[in-house]
Hints:
341 residues, alpha/beta, TIM Barrel, 2 domains, two-stranded antiparallel ribbon, 10 strands, globular, binds flavin mononucleotide
Amino acid sequence: MPMIDLDEPRDQAALTARLNEPFEIGGVAIPNRVSLAPLAGIGNWFFRLQARRFGAGLLVSEMVSSHAVRYGNERTCTELLRIHPDEHPVAIQLFGEDPVSMEAAAAVVAETGADMIDLNMGCPVPKVCKTGAGAALLRDHDRAVDVAKAAVRGSGLPVTVKIRPGQKPGETDGVTLAKRLEQDAGVAGIGFHPRHASQQHKGRPDYDLARELVEALEIPVTISGGMRGADTIRSVFDYTGAEAVMLARGVMGNPWLFSQVRGLRDQPPSDEEIIAELEWTIDRAIEHIGEQRASRYLRKFYPWYIEQLGLGHQAQDAFQRAESIDAVREMLSELAVSAFA
Ligand SMILES: Cc1cc2nc3c(=O)[nH]c(=O)nc-3n(C[C@H](O)[C@H](O)[C@H](O)COP(=O)(O)O)c2cc1C
């Protein structure tokens, strides 16, 4: 069985040039081949906007419940469906098992101005799977096709689907499903995270299977999984033959990776840049949900930046325990003084 050798020498310059080429998904023009992956609880409009500022092509939202959208849940509709004017092209990712809800939700998403809809058929979280959504659809192909058709019908937008190979190691239902989604549901593209649902986000992605899927489909496949380090990302892009790559954990607190993969910069961010980016994030979070809620929400974002700054447990604790955003800002200005010194 072939195995990718990520250290094998490759023409990194040629791959960088290729990653910078525009392409299309279902007629939507995407300016380059480095996309932002969907990240639940994280991929809101400002996280996506940050990715765009650093050079991401297509932006994909965190997963949003089709039922919550259909029934007009206020926070879902005002916060999770919010799109910033500079985000396009942007896809909103929906999850759900019911074609009726999906059709209605897709119509609402189309009205928000999204360029595409992405459907989640890979989420391994039990709360999602036990309703028949997410990775549960990898074993229920008729339903998966009906859900995808409903999203196409409801929105009139290109619909992509993000899948995994299967629920457990050895299963390849995802590959069979992808073919049916292409042929029977008319989906415009596939996002492939080649780790089984039972692996969640751990273990080595099966890039050989990804390569097989790319060869089996006419529609563009975007590869996700293990996307850290510019050279590794380019090697995976090359090896799998995917149309594009999708960055997830590698860009949490490290949006510079988008620029590095695209060859727009080489050097890692300076401490000043990291601090400035965290300050930008804090300002946007307040703009998004107000200072009180932002002060809790931001605790998810601090660890990435503190780690980037090379600071240890004490700093992590201090940011988690900070009683207000003012206290966080104060710590940041002290850090900035030492960064500039
Ligand atoms: C915190 C977190 C949240 C995620 N949320 C979603 C999601 O909402 N929808 C989805 O399709 N995938 C989701 N994923 C999977 C990622 O999009 C991506 O496929 C996965 O992290 C593998 O890429 P990586 O190894 O480069 O991180 C999530 C992953 C993480 C770590």
